[in-house]
Amino acid sequence: MAHQSLLKYSSVRLLRSLVGVLVLLGLSTAAASATSVSSGDEPIAFNKCWDYDAMPDLSIALSGSTTAVYFVDNDRRLHAIDVTAATKLWSSDLGGQVVSDLLVTEASIVMVTNVGDVSSSAPLAAKLRSISRQTGVTNWIADLPATPSAWLGAVNGTIVSVGKLGNILAFSRETGLPVWNKSLGVELATEPHFEDRSVLVGTVGNELVRVSYAGKLVMIAKLGHLPTAVFSDSANRVMSGDERGNLIFMSPAGKRFWKFKNGAQISYIVTYDSEFLVASYDNFIYKISKSGNVEWKRRLSGRLFGKPLIVAGMAAASVAGDGSVYVLDVADGKIVNRIETGEGNSTRIAAVQGGKGLVTAGSAGLAYYSQIKCPTI
Cβ contacts of residue 178 below 8 Å, gap of 6+? Predict the structure, then answer.
């Protein structure tokens, strides 16, 4: 009898063990299935192709072309890196602190540098420099009015420098000789937007101003609040964002079409497929139609560190101090993937290879990501 009881007890234990194993197997299968579905729902937009050891100056934006990426390091040297081989093409000593973006043209890279003793009370001398994309050799240097910062653009075949203090000057691309200049007499409140034949800016006087080729000035509108971002479309219609979160779309002459109220200051405005991507200080990116409808909005982990870029049909947005670059589907605003470059770091981004690839620059150096097959030598 004792033997039969022991046998029965052992059988029950074995049965319970088998049931437990089957339950665990079922849970594991369900978990694996969930992981598979999750992975399928979150496709990777960009694959990392290479890393490049460098110490970029993150106060200066990167620039890219179809074949190379350009950056300035902490020793004030400009570098050109081949995006296919991840090798240095050349580097050039700039002889001063870069205070502008890097403008890439067909044959050259142009930037503004301040030269002089930063500890002196005397204003620094500003220089506009053109450097060969092929060799890194200086093509020409032109004098500029002193400025704490500047922006560069190509307008009607010239290089136009827009200084923070309101000085706008145009130069020949080939020779660096001056073509025209205009002083606004007031400080800029926004980055300029460069049009085909003119420059659009917002001033600390709450004005929207367009300076056309040859330096003709036209005031578009007087605003109720300080402008913080400006943009115009191919028909020269103007969009302005301000410190209170107002977004206004108007005609070339300043007639208002519509107004959208956001919760915080507008920081950046870019366009994609005849619509607008707008970033604000409450950490949102909005897609807004030309009729003023919000197509979608996406909240990120912080404010943006530079304009969002359109790369391979996606919107890439770098968050300040977060070490993250978010890649959004422009159609619906969903986060396709997140590139992490290091916690607590801000990351610069640039589009390369005709908008098919993305280069990031952070404290750990540069990295290249591509949505298509990584380039090979």
Answer: 142, 169, 170, 171, 172
